[in-house]
């Protein structure tokens, strides 16, 4: 079980203190106090009339119960109050301590022993009685230290009350805390508090005070306007930082393209993303890259013939990626188009990029180069096989073209023979006629 932490008030009174929402019980052991008869402290009920007190004394202990009305708040809630209210509380606390006139009553000025009203008026839960109830003796020095520490804890809050009491001489305090702890009497501290309240009032005059309802409406309207303005502001930022420069680059590159200044087209569009480019920009940029690409004149001519305003976007992007030194992306596009020649060329360009890469280790570089070489060999074999198949199909087509007219030639003699057969009876007729006269 964890050991209970003993607070400042418990330690000072040598008592057990149990706090609930609206009650605080002070439990004293009879053997540790000088009280013999409960009647000796009954007058405590009349000291703080805002707090009803009940006392019960048994053989072993004395229990004093302080009933806290709902109109009073615990000291901890002071931090929820505004700054001016906390200074007013501090002023009234010092006034209350200074005005204490009961010779038989001893004060304890600490957060655990204080509650306050909505008017910032402080009330003490417990008073000691000289020689009867702790604190048993009056100690003006202790009370003055407690008073300054309580005020500093309320208005400053940078350091806890206990630390102000125990280590105020050694702590590195800020301006307000140091000023409070350096005060030597009540009057000086009250004057300092008054100065702080006056400064706050002057600040308040510089601001417009609105009723809570109007303030809530003002906040809602401000939030609503902010919600509308933020998207507009973001769009404006996007337009001027990204969209406007992008469109200006498109217009500038188009002007260079019309002037056949292809290197400037490449330069102007180099910062722009390929994915967001309109089709006409892709066309002009791909054409510009191919013009500057290290290709043989015949190859370059063939590629440029394929780049038209009807060319597939992926084909245009392929040559842009090649020109930008992004061969890996170009190869991916070529694979999606299932074009072996483009894949092979992209792999060879990728090989050049890897060889020029300085960050790769020698082993990693060799591994990547081997993978590329193996893939290039495979595609070369496939291209050779396709080429052989095309060469074999060409003679067949030529043979089919030559055999078609031969068939027509061989058919013609058959027609002639048929004619001769029809003409064979003619000689017989002649013989008959010639022979008639002889008969």
Summarize the structure.
With 439 residues, the protein is of the alpha+beta class.
Task: Lay out the secondary structure.
Blueprint: H1 8-13, E1 16-19, E2 23-29, E3 52-57, E4 61-67, E5 73-74, H2 83-98, E6 105-106, E7 114-116, E8 122-124, E9 128-129, H3 140-155, H4 161-167, H5 175-181, H6 186-205, H7 212-258, H8 262-269, H9 279-292, H10 297-306, H11 313-323, H12 327-337, H13 340-356, H14 362-423, H15 425-438
Antiparallel strand pairs: 1-2, 2-4, 3-4, 5-7, 6-9, 7-8
Helix pairs in contact: 2-3, 2-6, 3-4, 3-5, 7-8, 7-9, 8-9, 9-11, 11-12, 12-13, 13-14
What does this structure look like?
- The structure is a single chain.
- The chain has 439 residues and is of the alpha+beta class.
- It has two domains: 8-207, Orthogonal Bundle (Transferase(Phosphotransferase), domain 1); 227-389, Alpha Horseshoe (Serine Threonine Protein Phosphatase 5, Tetratricopeptide repeat).
- The protein is built from 15 helices and nine strands.
- The chain has helices at 8-13, 83-98, 140-155, 161-167, 175-181, 186-205, 212-258, 262-269, 279-292, 297-306, 313-323, 327-337, 340-356, 362-423, 425-438; strands at residues 16-19, 23-29, 52-57, 61-67, 73-74, 105-106, 114-116, 122-124, 128-129.
- The strands form three sheets. Strands 1-2-4-3 form a four-stranded antiparallel β-sheet. A three-stranded antiparallel β-sheet has the order 5-7-8. Strands 6-9 form a two-stranded antiparallel ribbon.
- The longest helix is centred in the last third of the chain and has 62 residues, at 362-423.
- The termini are far apart.
- Mean pLDDT is 84; it is low at 404-439.
């Amino acid at each position: 079980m964890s050991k209970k932490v003993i607070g400042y008030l418990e330690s000072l009174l040598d008592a057990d203190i149990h706090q609930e929402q609206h009650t605080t019980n002070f439990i004293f052991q009879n053997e540790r106090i000088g009280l013999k008869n409960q009647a000796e402290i009954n007058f405590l009920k009349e000291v703080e009339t805002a707090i009803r007190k009940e006392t019960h004394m048994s053989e072993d202990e004395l229990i004093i119960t302080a009933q806290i009305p709902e109109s009073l708040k615990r000291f901890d809630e002071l931090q929820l109050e505004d700054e001016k209210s906390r200074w007013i509380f501090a002023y009234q606390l010092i006034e209350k301590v200074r005005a204490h006139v009961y010779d038989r009553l001893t004060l304890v000025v600490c957060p655990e022993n204080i509650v306050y009203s909505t008017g910032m008026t402080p009330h003490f839960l417990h008073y000691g009685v000289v020689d009867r109830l702790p604190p048993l003796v009056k100690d003006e020095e202790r009370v003055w230290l407690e008073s300054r520490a309580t005020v500093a804890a309320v208005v400053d809050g940078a350091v806890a009350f206990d630390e102000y009491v125990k280590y105020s001489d050694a702590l590195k305090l800020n301006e307000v805390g140091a000023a409070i702890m350096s005060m030597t009497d009540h009057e000086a501290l009250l004057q300092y508090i008054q100065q702080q309240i006056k400064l706050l009032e002057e600040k308040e005059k510089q601001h417009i005070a609105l009723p809570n309802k109007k303030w809530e409406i003002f906040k809602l309207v401000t939030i609503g306007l902010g919600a509308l303005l933020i998207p507009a502001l973001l769009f404006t930022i996007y337009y001027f930082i990204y969209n406007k420069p992008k469109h200006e680059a498109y217009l500038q590159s188009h002007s260079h393209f019309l002037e056949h200044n292809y290197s400037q087209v490449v330069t102007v569009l180099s910062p722009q993303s390929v994915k967001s480019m309109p089709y006409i920009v892709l066309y002009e940029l791909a054409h510009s890259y191919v013009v500057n690409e290290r290709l043989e004149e015949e190859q370059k001519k063939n590629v440029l013939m394929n780049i038209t305003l009807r060319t597939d976007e992926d084909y245009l992007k392929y040559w842009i990626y090649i020109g930008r030194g992004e061969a890996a992306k170009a190869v991916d596009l070529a694979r999606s188009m299932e074009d072996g020649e483009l894949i092979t060329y992209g792999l060879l360009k990728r090989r050049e990029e890897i060889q020029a890469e300085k960050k790769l280790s020698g082993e990693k570089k060799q591994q990547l180069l081997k993978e590329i070489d193996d893939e290039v060999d495979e595609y070369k074999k496939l291209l050779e096989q396709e080429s052989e198949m095309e060469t074999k199909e060409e003679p067949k087509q030529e043979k089919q073209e030559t055999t078609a007219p031969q068939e027509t030639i061989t058919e013609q003699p058959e027609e002639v023979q048929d004619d001769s057969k029809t003409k064979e009876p003619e000689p017989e007729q002649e013989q008959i006629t010639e022979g008639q006269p002889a008969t």
